[in-house]
């Protein structure tokens, strides 16, 4: 399933799958203030189940502080619900941002989705 909304349509797509009960969100495009609500909705729609989510960022070419804020809020929400959030496949520029703000110390960052699923 791909979520695209209004102006966000051109810059972000999110595909939802599941592997052994773990949600995998494959994100492609740019994460900025225009699409932050779309990303937040996708991350926080875990329907009461224990939220275990891997976000595949390999298709994300840009992320600003809006994306950081969404991931921080999602991590807190999932942690409060006894779940977890992991990221995988971030391109160099996105990974550098995650490292600069220390988010890679709060949310597990992995090279591949497979590594994130089994961490």
What's the gist of this structure?
It contains four helices and six strands.
Please provide a written account of the structure.
The structure is a single chain. The chain has a six-stranded mixed beta sheet, with helices on both faces. It has helices at residues 36-44, 65-80, 92-100, 113-118, and strands spanning 2-3, 12-19, 22-31, 52-63, 84-88, 108-110. Mean pLDDT is 91; it is low at 1-9. The relative contact order is 0.16. Helices cover 34% and strands 34% of the residues. Helix 1 (36-44) runs parallel beside helix 2 (65-80). The protein is an alpha/beta fold and 119 residues long. It starts with a strand and ends with a helix. It has four helices and six strands, in the order E-E-E-H-E-H-E-H-E-H.
Element layout with pairings:
Layout: E1 2-3, E2 12-19, E3 22-31, H1 36-44, E4 52-63, H2 65-80, E5 84-88, H3 92-100, E6 108-110, H4 113-118
Parallel strand pairs: 3-4, 4-5, 5-6
Antiparallel strand pairs: 1-2, 2-3
Helix pairs in contact: 1-2
**Class by alpha and beta content:** alpha/beta
User: Fraction of residues in helices?
Assistant: 25-40%
Main sheet strand line-up:
1-2-3-4-5-6
Number of helices: 4
Strand content: 25-35%
Number of strands: 6
From the structure above, extract its key features:
globular; 6-stranded mixed beta sheet; alpha/beta
């Amino acid at each position: 399933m791909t979520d695209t909304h209004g102006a966000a349509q051109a810059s972000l797509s999110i595909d939802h799958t599941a592997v052994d009960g773990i949600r995998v969100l494959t994100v492609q495009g740019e994460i900025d203030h225009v699409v932050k609500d779309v990303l937040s909705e996708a991350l926080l729609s875990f329907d009461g189940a224990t939220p275990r989510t891997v976000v595949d960022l390999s298709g994300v070419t840009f992320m600003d502080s809006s994306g950081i804020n969404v991931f921080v809020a999602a991590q807190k929400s999932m942690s409060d619900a006894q779940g977890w959030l992991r990221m995988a496949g971030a391109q160099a520029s996105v990974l550098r941002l995650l490292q600069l703000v220390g988010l890679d110390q709060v949310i597990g960052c992995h090279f591949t989705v497979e590594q994130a699923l089994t961490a």
